[in-house]
Amino acid sequence: MAKDIRVLLYYKYVPIENAEKFAADHLAFCKSIGLKGRILVADEGINGTVSGDYETTQKYMDYVHSLPGMEDLWFKIDEENEQAFKKMFVRYKKEIVHLGLEDNDFDNDINPLETTGAYLSPKEFKEALLDEDTVVLDTRNDYEYDLGHFRGAIRPDIRNFRELPQWVRDNKEKFMDKRVVVYCTGGVRCEKFSGWMVREGYKDVGQLHGGIATYGKDPEVQGELWDGKMYVFDERISVDINHVDPVVIGKDWFDGTPCERYVNCGNPECNRRILTSEENEDKYLRGCSHECRVHSRNRYVAENDLSQAEVMERLAAIGESLETLVAQ
């Protein structure tokens, strides 16, 4: 069956004058052609994922390529059966990638147009994966890594990207005298983070050009040495990368069985992304911990209109009780 929806993943570091007005104008255009998606606009550039039919996405790409400084912007294109977004958002932010530098020191931020790591093609990156003297570092959030990652890549002990610089500083003995290559979904985070590593004094820093998304489409490597699926920030949740020898590496949060289905913890104050089957989601009330399961605002309980007796029954089945409710 023909796939008539295209999903566009893209970014570009380019100075944007009056970025707040640019964002407003950009949103108006996107809505005028019926595009759906999520776009961040900052003084330092633009970063987005959008979806629509062929005609709509072509109009959008032509529009972006007509904008000053964006004539060569690189769109990574997926073909899908359904829309990847329900609405259209364009937001202005201070940065399109927040590196977590001390005290939000934007003046001391990394400018990838001036400092960034060496670009590696998919073939060169695959060679780096096989090189015992090269350290491969995943720069994404923990839940992205847990769903899929390159074989042998280091998983930093962090919850999100903002924590990565400090983690590297705390573990610099692992990297300082070695070649380091980094990767992320589409390349936008690595542009800035590899530049930060260069500024920190690392001598040989590389990055996967175009990110995992490009690696999976390369006709030569065909996604080989990638395990699991790639997490994406839209309705699809995940996409296939390895077309040679794919394997499932995601593990159910509750019982450790193979799983590639993500949900958010039912406790809105936690909201942790967890892998779990529908069966275990029901069994554990979509709560990643006892505290989240019994939280007074548990969304799973509300969505399924469960009575207190029903909640107590499910908790008893897993050896827990409703003895303590967490206050709002």
TrEMBL record:
Keywords carried by this UniProt record: Oxidoreductase, Transferase, tRNA processing
Annotated catalysed reactions: uridine(34) in tRNA + AH2 + O2 = 5-hydroxyuridine(34) in tRNA + A + H2O
Keyword ATP-binding listed: no
Boundaries of every Rhodanese domain copy: 130-224
Protein's GO biological process: tRNA modification
Pfam family, one: Rhodanese_C
Enzyme Commission number, as recorded: 1.14.-.-
InterPro entries in the record: Rhodanese-like_dom, Rhodanese-like_dom_sf, Rhodanese_C, TrhO, TRHO_N
Keyword Transferase included in the entry's annotation: yes
Major enzyme class: oxidoreductase
Molecular-function GO term, any one: transferase activity
CDD domains: RHOD_YceA
NCBIfam families: PRK00142.1-3, PRK00142.1-5
Function noted in UniProt: Catalyzes oxygen-dependent 5-hydroxyuridine (ho5U) modification at position 34 in tRNAs.
Protein family per UniProt: Belongs to the TrhO family.
Name of protein: tRNA uridine(34) hydroxylase
Gene name of this polypeptide: trhO
